[in-house]
């Protein structure tokens, strides 16, 4: 599917109508003992590093097509670990660790009973060992034991998708909190044998915390901070690795046509904090709690917990045009830490459901 427009990024202080200063207290501990990848070269007076890629934020519309087969299949899948330097927000750089260069890593989509042959590659230029733990795998470490590889190595495992649901995968080396925080997590969707209800559009987001040695909004190159992680005091919280990536000040709002039914997957990589997942101006019309795709979904849920290490799915209806803000309802994370994505429902006003100007004085938005 097509990527969203990569428009010029402006200051995230003006995001989506939310005010508030960005340069608020984050973590200022001395980073001498912090675990970090090889120091990046600074590129300007701000101290920010030269970036390897323009973006790490995965396109939320990049979702594999629904299952359309009714007999078991075998899927050959290769993933590559990629360590890259990129911006959390303009002027703030960080050394990310990723699967296939994006946060979250690519969604794997199969049917219950399918077999997956997974090859994980760690390029020679990497600084770290990596592996992968699939929560959809019966086996030691969810496959992590057999896929632990040093730079320049690769490993292959085979597993059968025996139980349905939306499940997380993540790196699970001993410093797993660092690797997950730096971006190494994703989702595997195992559809029930009868499939999922048809919808008009599907979206895929990943929420996680970035623990660094500088304050939120402080320009320069941010290094991983083990002290901030131990305190569970993130400098940033983000959807798809970057602050306010899917807003008018990032890569743009995600366009939705009025009347579309939209299924949204949220993979909470954590590594530590639960999400109070909420859609401002909407509800989760059908909620598949904790990625349970076989029980009857909950209905009309306003806010739902998504624990770290969980992929939750939910569907919304879109009868009214305008923005739907996807947030964690721990709202300081939205106003101060970067955790906001906006869906832009495009269409005609529907005053039978919502009239922004019933007296006709201001003409509405």
TrEMBL record:
Species the sequence originates in: Halorubrum saccharovorum
Pfam families, A to Z: Cu-oxidase_3
EC number annotated for this UniProt entry: 1.7.2.1
Assembly mode: Homotrimer.
Top-level taxonomic group: Archaea
Catalysed reactions listed for this entry: nitric oxide + Fe(III)-[cytochrome c] + H2O = Fe(II)-[cytochrome c] + nitrite + 2 H(+)
Residue ranges annotated for the Plastocyanin-like domain, each copy included: 82-194
UniProt cross-references to InterPro entries, sorted A to Z: Cu-oxidase-like_N (IPR011707), Cu-oxidase_fam (IPR045087), Cupredoxin (IPR008972), NO2-reductase_Cu (IPR001287), TAT_signal (IPR006311), TAT_signal_bac_arc (IPR019546)
Name of the featured protein: Copper-containing nitrite reductase
Cofactor(s) annotated in UniProt: Cu(2+); Cu(+)
Keyword tags: Copper, Metal-binding, Oxidoreductase, Repeat
Binding, Cu cation: 130, 135, 170-171, 179, 184, 329
GO molecular function: copper ion binding; nitrite reductase (NO-forming) activity
Alphabetical list of SUPFAM superfamilies matching this protein: Cupredoxins
